[in-house]
Amino acid sequence: MTEKEIKQLQDENTFLKKKVERLKDELVRMVSRNLDLSERLEYDVELRRRAQVAREIMEGYVERQRNADLQDDGQLLALIEMRVEKERPHLRPDFNADDLAEMLGISKIRLAQLFRHQTIHRTPDAYIDNLRVLTALRLLREQPNYTIAVVAEEAGFSNVRTLQRRIQEAIGMSPVDYRVMLTRDNAFRKKSIQTYNKWKPCNPLRCMASSFSLYSTHCFESESLSLH
Length: 228
What we know:
Blueprint: H1 3-68, H2 73-87, H3 97-104, H4 108-118, H5 124-142, H6 148-155, H7 160-171, H8 175-198, H9 204-218
Helix pairs in contact: 5-6, 5-7, 8-9
């Protein structure tokens, strides 16, 4: 290799080294710029998150203030029924009177006084229990394939034993007996309807039997959320 060729290679090597250094510098600048952009993006996201939290806090404060100004018991009862029917919080096993007061934005004392003086349930917890009982009765009617454990879970009871005790207190029979009664009554009603169709026009005694069957079937079918 001639001296000229060696010098040419050295020049090329020097040029490549300088180019590599320039690329390194550019890479460092790009990384720095990306880090800066990332920090700005994170800052913007954090600002938006804080703004959203502040907005939610303010909206909750406004709602609590508005609800706290409800001096009329009728308006407050209507608000309770509307929120419960819409959100159905009683289906959560841990939902209690304290949670109901917080949901409405009123004090626990105000809520307790309202139920004590204006409802048949006397206490907020009794009202919540009643909602769960009504839900359980509906599930026992409409979902015959549900086990008692599933009914308890879906209705918001913490365990099967509590469900059984509440159902027994409410209607005087266990969930299993209630289902047996429904099955027997449905069969009796079907037979009554067949008899009615066979003996048209029916005599008063047959009509009375059919009416009694229909009444006994529907006696627990109302799942009203009314507080009165």
